[in-house]
Amino acid sequence: MYEGAMGRKNAATSLLRALVVSLLCAQSLGQVFNLTLSIKEGLPAKTIVGDLGAVLSRPSTGFFISESRDSYVFRDLEIDADTGIISTAVVLDRESRDKYEFAAATLTGEMIKVKIEVKDVNDHSPVFPSKEVDLEVSELSPPGSPFQLEGAKDEDEGEFGTQGYRITEHEMADLFHLEYRSGSEDHLSLDLILMSKLDRETQDFYSLTIEAFDGGIPARTGTLRVNIHILDENDNPPVFNQTEYHTSLPEDAPVMSSVCQVHATDLDLGDNGRVTYEINRRQSDPNEVFSINETSGVVYLNKPLDYETQAFHELIISARDNGAQPEHSSTFVGVRVLNINDNSPTISVLFLSETGDAVVSEAAGIGDYVARISVSDSDFEEERVTVALEGGDGKFTLKQTDDFLYALCVNAELDREDKDLYELKVQASDFGSPRLSSEAVFLLRVADTNDCHPVFEKDEYIISIAEDAPQGSSLIQIQARDSDEGTNSDVRYSILKSNQDSLISIDPESGLVTTAAALDRETQMEVWFLVVAADGGEPSLSSTATVTVLVEDVNDNEPVFQQQLYNVSIPEHSDVGSCFLQKSL
Fold first, then answer.
1. Measuring CA to CA, which residue among 346, 347, 342 is closest to residue 433?
2. d(CA 170, CA 30)
3. 222-226 — which CB contacts under 8 Å span 24+ positions?
4. Residue 19: in which H helix or E strand, if any?
5. Which of 175-179, 258-262, 430-434, 571-575 has the highest mean pLDDT?
6. Could you give phi then psi for residue 24, rounded to 5 degrees?
7. How far apart are CA 418 and CA 241, in angstroms?
8. Which of 33, 126, 366, 502 has the most CB atoms lying inside 10 A of its own CB?
9. What domains, with CATH codes, occur in the chain?
């Protein structure tokens, strides 16, 4: 019985489908109507969407739908085949399906093409891909640097989609700023912009909340927590805990005795903050009397001390970090050697020139320091030491700067061209009995500055040359000497521009003057010009000499009569030898 009922139902369904297909295929016989409807998503089931008969010119008693009963049209919509009323069967979701399309036919042959658009409502909030992100930013990032973040997606569209972003913490406005622009996949791309310079050593972590908002009223929002870790860069040098270290050591101290310990800290992290120490051998302790533990900073005695050889040691200790581009700093360690015997005073001279050599510029001013002289005595606690300077022709003097420190200063103007080497003797004497003394003798060289002009052998040169001398003939070799040295004394020659310099040329290095054109005494009997000698100093100094070239005559012109024909009358009986015509050529 059941099988018979099912068979009848299937047969009726097949008959209905065949009828609908026949009506649709015969649409050319009837009129075609278009029905466009819309409904907002999220409305409850049974909400009326529209009426199929609304577009018909006459009422219809029934409608046939082209869709099968198991299609999405009949799954989401209810269509009354008698009245043509369309209503929702479920709550519609635009994000799942945003439109429905089907065709309906009437018994009289009209066809209705139906399009139902599901309108968006603000039922979704912007959602970031993750709730929290970690961002690493170098502390050396310049202001204006962008850091890209994944934007929030909103399944709604248009004004209900993501409209913008903001940082919720107002105190972050001076440090960070958001920039966003239209991106792909219906969301805004997002950049976090650094607004000012960072310093990890001041603050190494920031946390802020970014809020994405849509265009609904009220707006829906989504949040992203951004944890900003400031990455360390090697932007801090090691800093010693003292600008100078001073200590003393008896001269009989055993090798590997601890002298002192230096300590420097670096605010950076990891290798950027790991400090190693070394003695700057280029500036101090070239004989390696001392050594240092590169990690602890402990200074050790590396060789036996000899107070009589050197009573005071100056160490320049460098601390540098282990960054890719290391930062470094230096400190001074003064080690005074304590004498255990009675001996003469000792003298140590440290020259202050750039190379450390015994050199002073002739341009040094009165009072300028030339050298630092330290004097020590084994009995300095009980006895005084006197220090005197000998030699130097009064050009130098000693100035005491501390109990046992003196400065060698310039006392008068220097002139290297007058004297370029001074033998100086520093003598230190104690007040013991018998009185003991020591001395340090050194040669101080005066370095040249460009303070001398080139000097010609003469102020004026007068030479002669035949007018038929060929072009390029040598006239004279002029020399000027410069009392300076080096490039300051390199002299080059030139001819001062005049209306006659085209006739003469000069070799800029040798000073050889030659003719540059043919001479003609009948046109110009004398050529006069100035030779300039300039040295190679900065700025260059120069001087001039006058050269006069006398052009000597040669027989290079034939006699020429004043006229071609002369008529003369001679009286008869004139004496033999009488002049009857005199004409000049």
1. 342
2. 68
3. 222/125, 222/126, 222/127, 222/128, 222/152, 222/154, 223/128, 223/131, 223/168, 224/128, 224/130, 224/131, 224/132, 224/133, 224/149, 224/152, 225/131, 225/132, 225/133, 226/132, 226/133, 226/135, 226/149, 226/192
4. helix 2-25
5. 258-262
6. -65, -40
7. 50
8. 126
9. 13-119 (2.60.40.60), 132-231 (2.60.40.60), 239-338 (2.60.40.60), 346-447 (2.60.40.60), 455-552 (2.60.40.60)
Write the single-letter amino acid at 341: N
Whole-angstrom CA distances from 85 to 19, 57, 110, 346 are 21, 16, 17, 120
Instruction: State whether residue 64 is helix, strand or coil.
Output: strand
Give tens-digit pLDDT for 265-299: 999 888 999 999 999 999 999 999 999 999 999 99
Phi then psi dihedrals of residue 239, to 5 deg: -125, 125
Whether the Cβ atoms of residue 315 and residue 284 lie closer than 8 Å to each other: yes
User: Which residues sit opposite 243 in a β-bridge?
Assistant: none
List, for residues 204-228, the tens digit of each pLDDT value.
Answer: 899 999 999 988 888 889 999 999 9
**CA angle centred on 501, ends 496 and 506, rounded to 5°:** 75
Q: How far, in Å, CA of 382 to CA of 514, rounded?
A: 79
Give the residue from 220, 154, 226 showing the smallest Cα distance to 191: 226
